Every structure is written in C-alpha cells, then in structure tokens.
Amino acid sequence: MLEVAGLCSFYGRAQILRDIALDCAAGEVLVLLGRNGAGKSTTLKSLIGLVRPQAGSIRFAGAEIAGAEPHRIARLGLGYVPEERRIFTTLTVAENLDIGRQPPRPGIRPWTPARLYEVFPNLGAMPARIGGRMSGGEQQMLAIARTLMGNPRLILLDEPSEGLAPLIVEQMAGAIAALKREGVGVVLAEQNLYFALGLADRAVVIEKGAVVWQGSAAALAHDEATRQRFLAVGAAS
Amino acid sequence: MDALAVSLLTGLADAASLFLVASGLTVIFGVTRVVNFAHGSLYLLGAYIGWSLLTRLPHSPLGFLLGALATIIALAVIGMALEMALLRRVYRVPELFQLLATFGVVLMVQDIAQYFWGAEDLTLPRPPWLRAFVLIGNQRFPRFDLVIIILFPLVFGVLWLLFRRTRWGRLVRAATEDREMVAALGVDQRRLFTSVFALGAGLAGLGGVLALPDASANLQMDLSSVTDAFVVVVVGGLGSLPGAALASLLIGLLQSFGIMLIPRATLALVFVVMAVVLILRPNGLLGRPISGSGGGTPALVRPAPMALRAAGGAALCAALLAPFYLGDYALAIATEMLIAMLFAASLHFMMGPGGMASFGHAAWFGIGAYASAFAAHLLAAPMPLGLALAPLAAGVLAVAFGAFVVRLSGVYLAMLTLAFAEIAWAIAFQWVDLTGGDNGILGVWPAPWAAGPRGFYWLALGVTVGGTLALRHLLATPFGYSLRGARDSRLRAEAIGIPAARIQLAAFTLAGAAAGLAGGLYAYAKGSVFPTYISLGHSVDALLMVLLGGVATMSGPILGALAYTGLYDLLLAATSLWRLVLGAAIIVLVLAFPEGIAGAILRLWTRLRPA
Predict the structure, then answer these.
(1) Which of A92, B182, B254, B258 is deepest in the core (most CB within 10 A)?
(2) Does the residue A237 lie in any domain?
(3) What CATH number has the domain bearing residue A75?
(4) Which residues form the domain of A15?
C-alpha cells in the first residue's frame, strides 16, 4: 500500500535522508528503528508532507504523493501521529477528535468517537476535558484516536511509547494490534526495541539517514550483532 | 450623575466600535500569524463603500441595514481577494516582511480611495432617525450610539458561538494553536485562512460603515483605526477574542472618562494603558505565549568583501566630492538621504543583529531633534553642544524605557516601542507651552561654519559615515557576537553566561542614541522641529528603509534608505498617484526579494562568483 524508493530530504543544506526505501502493506506493522537523530522522525514527516522531500518516490494507495501538500496526503488516507503528540491544548477531547474527522473511506470500518472510546476507555471517561489538562499517556491516546477519526488506511506513529508508564505502553500495544486486525497498515518509529519487536512484522533499521538493515522482526530479535551495531542496546528482553 | 451615565454610554459605544475592528484583526492574527496593517484599509473601504451605498439607498433604518449588510459582503469579498492574491504568498516569509507587504496595501488603498472618492471627508445625510437623541436626565445621548452599544455583545456572542459551536470554529481554534498539525489531519489550511480573512474583513467593513453616522469617511481613518485596533489586540492578548472584548471595554471606558478627568492627556492615555499592561503582563491580558512563525535563521553579517569595500570607497569618494558637482537643492536632498541612512542604520542595529523590531523608532529621532532644539532655544547652546545633547537625551531615555522593552519579544516588543513613541508624540503635540505643539520649534540654526548647504552636507556625511561605521564595528566585537547569540537563542545564550537582557538593553540604547543623533542633525538641517518627526508614519519610514534594504546585511539599511528616499522623491515629483506606485513597488519587492535589496545583490553576487 505504501512504497517508498530513493527518498532524500534536507533541512536547509544538510541532507538528513539518503535513498530511503521501505514498504508497508495493509494490515502490516513495519517498525523503523534507529538511534536518536538517525532520521526516523524525518522519514515520517517526509511521508506525510511536513518535510518536502527533494528526491525520491512515495507511492500510497496508487497515487504518487512525494511533494504533495500534507492535507492532500492525509485525505488519501495516510494518518500521522507526531512524536510530540501535538494535541490542541485549548480544545476538549471531543473537539480534538472532531478536527481529525474525515468522510468514511471504502474498505475501512468508519471510526466514531463512540468506537474510539471503546478502544481507549480513558478518553471515554473525559470527553469534555481540555487537551492541556491531560496526562502524557492520555494525550498520546488522544493523538492516535484523533488521527483514526480520519479513517486512515495506513497510520504513521512516531515513538508512541516514549515517556509513558509501562501500563499505558501495554494499552498502546493493544491498540496497535487492534488496528492491525482491522487491516490498517502501521509504520512505527521506535526506540523501544522490546515494545517494537513485540508488535512488528518487519523492521527497517536507519543509521545516519540511510537504511542499513531490513528484514523480519523475528530475524532482528535473533540478530544480536545487528542490534549491537546499529541500536547499541543489549538483548531485547 | 447623568453626565457620568452619558460618559459611561459614550465609553461603551467607543468600546463597541473598537471591538468591531479589533475582533477581525485578532482572529486573523490568531490563525494566520500575519500582522495585518491593511486591516485599517479594510475599515476605510468599509466606510467609503458604505457611504456610496447608503447615499443611494433610501435614508431609512431599513435602507441603512441593507447598506450595512451589502458593505459587509463587499468587504468580505475584498478580503478574500486580498488573501488569495497577496497574503497567501507571504505566509512563509518572516513576519516583518508580511507587515511590509500589508503596508504596501495600505499605501495603494489610500490612493485608490482618493481616486474614486476624492480627498474630501464624506459625511452621510442625517435623516431624523439618525439625529435622534435619548434623554438621560437632562443629558442627550445619540440613539444611533445605543444601536452600536447593543451590537457589541451581539457580535461577540455570534463570534463566540461560531468559534465554539461550529466545526469551522473548532478548525480555526485548532489552527490558531498548530497549523501544521491541522494540515496533517487533512484540513486545507488555505481555504480556512481565506474564510478567516473574509470574516475579519467583513467585521472591519461593519466597523467602517457604522463610523459614518457619527463621523465621516476620510483618508486618515486607516492608520488611526489600525493603530487603535492593534493596541486593543495587544492589550487583550494576540489572537484572543475575549481578550479583545475586554481590552475594548477597558480602553473605550478609559478614553471617555479620561476626557472628563485629564483632558490634556487624552492622546497619550491609550498608549500609557498599553505600556502598563505589557509591562505587567507581557502577553496581554488574556494572551498566551505565541510561537514565532519561524522566519528562518538570519544570515551572518560578515566583513565586507574586497569588491564591496572598493565600491563603498568609491561611493564615499563620490559623496565627498558631491558639493563640487551638485547644486544646492540636490545637496539638500543628499543631506536628507544621509540622515535617513543613519536613522535606518540605527534601527537596523537593534532589528537585524538585535532581533528587536520597532514600530516606534521615530521616538528616538524626535527626542534627539527636540533635545537639539531645546538646547538651541533654552540654553542658547552652540551647535556642537546641541548635536551632542541629541544622542545623549535619546540614549538616556532609551535606557530607562528599554529596561521594560527587552523583557518582551516579537510583536509585543514592537508594540511597546510604538506605545512609547505615541506617548512621546502626544507630549510633543499636546504640551504646547514647552514644544509649541503643532507649530513646532523654529529657528534651530546651525553654526556659521556649517550654515551653507555644502558645509552642512559635509557635516552630515561625516556624522553618518562615522556613526554607521561605529555601529558596524560594534557588531564585530564580542558585544556584537553576544547580541546575535541572544537573538538566536536567548536561553542558550544565558546558559553560557551571556546576560541577554543587558546586552539587548545596551543595543537598544545605542540604537536610540544613534537615531537621536540623526534627529539632532535633522533639526539643524531643517532649522525647525515638529511633532511629525515622532509620528507613526516616520517610524514606518524607518522600518520600510531597513526591510527594503534587507535585515541580514549591514549595507542593507544604507541601500534601503537610498532606495526609499530616492523612490519617494522621484514618485512625488512624477505622479500624483505616488502612494499607489510606491505601495505596488513595495509589494513586488517583498514577493520578488524577500531578503531585501542588499540580500538580493548578495545572492546574485554569490551565484555569479564561482562561474
């Protein structure tokens, strides 16, 4: 559903991404791994159009979207949940959800606030709460729920587990697994290897803006040498 | 008691008029982050278009209502066209250039209005229902003003519901917080911005048409209304609708009671209020800190390359020899250009490297000019002493006032400088015993050795070149580096031990003193001093010169001053529609050379160089 080839992005004159290639199918979870500053966030921002790629092709749902404006990309059914969550802090939970609303999309069971409150019961308990008065975990759930209101075919998640309590991370993993069952594609940028490999079908490792390893999540879980070299962490468990 | 009630009602009517204009401005700023100087021009067009409609419609309440509605729609359409044709293209440029572009619109609209409606003030015929009064005790109060008062809560309520209860309003509020995220969720920002602009312009149009029965449609109403509206918006907190309502009330009531209590301080009162609010609450009454629109990192100021030094040297030689090949009139113009250069360079010093834009830089120029004039008149001081007092007086006041200024940033900082300039202007204008008011102070003559056009030209050349080079030199010292560090990241600069506020205050003071020096020179060049030296128009001149030339280079303000004064003099002589041409030229320059003239030359230079 998503096919990326030769993607190059710059901040000013500094090249951040070099020839990134990756793909993700419907109902698949692809994890993007890499150290701080490797280019994971920039990759996701280039896909949604917040960073305009200088070269390369991004095909999504049959259309070429490289260089298109973010709102057009989002309307094609590509959802984006930023690392900083970027909740509208002066809007309530229900209002935040309404901002993400898009018309129903063929092949996707339409998301409604009621359905989302089932997936994220915490949100259901506080529809009138102002975004700025929520905990980090609640904000993260709201950020995902808000993007789901657009009925995406594929969702880009930038470090959803960052800074969250273990219990909330559990819930997040449950939500991602539920998306996968719905047939939604998920591209997950993560540093939390344990969280990521538990969810992902396949993994792509990025280093200095280039893809240095790719394969199945299971293979990476057994490949300690690669993990040591590019991710500098010990055994996953 | 009745008089008090009437004052209260008058204040409420003033507050309502303020709110109509300011609400549109604050909504537009909130979403687009554009400092829209042209909002006053929309108000002006509302008044003129309203006049044209209302004089043709039946002079009945129903006719008025229809005319007002048609005006609102007309202005909404004009606002949409303006947004789509111009503002859409400048959202990504630094906010000061947006300001410059909208100021170009102000100039153009002035000439367009004059072309279609003439220079005379236009008043409405006043049928009995418009003249009617209500009696409060034995005091009379215009019935039409009651309508305006009722409109205040009505418009506020409608806007409130619009923002709270509709999806459009939720989108606008979300975009006010984080436009990028709204786009990433699939919302077309451009349509949102256009519709917001249409709403704001429609409100300005309503304000304009409602100004007709009590006043008139005139060519001055654009700047006066936009200044008032900006004060309201800044006092209330940029982008906050309840803030704008609260600030309108505060200022409207203060104005009407202020006239009763201290009639001589009326002009300054509003700006005193703004200064006090900004000092106590740096983001306005109900505002929240705003993230900058991200204009990109300004380029470094580097030592001039050899070629530029050679060109500068040649220009200096040509300038030194100018009295031998220019006539007296041309020399007088050249002297004014030199003074403008020093004035622009002083503003550039705080704006470019200092990162502090000012809407009131003329204050320091004017204070310098008045200091020289007082020295000449009250102390009978010789010219050198008078000239020395100019930067001294401006510098001392700049230190005192700058201590408050450097605590703010961005638009708030610029508005506080405007407040100070307006207070200074009001003092010059209203303290007639000391300053002569509108008549100014005449007879500020230079010393005999500098009395001729040649002598004074050389004096101006020496002072300007010396002052500009001194400012340039300071930028290359550790002080200059600290200043730029404080501009680029105040937090990081402070973390490595740079006292950012003190450094900025020093820069502010130096800029004020240099502007004061320019003002002193100007006083002796003209032989007279007037309140207009401190006017908003003069501050905007300085801003235009710096922005036209380019903020990122040291030669920018010099070229900008040359281009602006040259263009101005040329156009003034060539066409009666000079504002139209100048405004269009400014807009073209902003669109084509967002880095200014000097920046564009630099880019061309670096592109040609390797070839």
Answers:
(1) B182
(2) no
(3) 3.40.50.300
(4) 2-231
A217 assigned to some structural domain: yes
Indicate which of A60, A65, A71 best probes the interface with B, i.e. most B CBs within 10 Å of its own CB: A71
Chain B, nearest residue to A45 by Cα: B184
Name the amino acid, one letter, at B200: G
d(CA B505, CA B397): 12
Q: What is the rounded radius of gyration, in angstroms, for the C-alpha atoms of chain B?
A: 25
Using CA coordinates, name the residue in chain B closest to A73: B186
For residue A121, is it within any domain? yes
User: By the 8 A CB rule, do B397 and B515 touch?
Assistant: no
Instruction: Please tell me the total count of domains within chain A.
Output: 1
Provide the b/e sequence for B546-576 (b: ≥16 CB within 10 Å): bbbbbbbbbbbbbbbbbbbbebbeebeeeee
Cα B31 from Cα B192, distance rounded (Å): 9
Cβ–Cβ gap A100/B186 under 8 Å: yes
CA gap B128, B43 in Å, rounded? 26
DSSP for A173-187? HHHHHHHHHHT-EEE
Question: Judged by CB atoms within 8 Å, which residues 130-169 of B form the interface with A?
Answer: 167
DSSP secondary structure string, A80-102? EE-TT----TTSBHHHHHHHT--
Phi, psi of A79 (to 5 degrees): -95, 150
Cβ contacts of B173 on chain A, cutoff 8 Å:
88, 90-91, 95
Average pLDDT per 10 consecutive residues for chain B, totaling 611 residues: 87 94 92 87 97 94 95 97 90 78 92 94 89 86 92 95 93 89 93 94 96 91 89 90 94 86 75 87 81 49 73 88 87 92 94 89 96 90 92 96 88 87 90 86 86 90 94 91 88 89 94 96 93 90 86 82 86 85 86 77 71 45
A190 assigned to some structural domain: yes
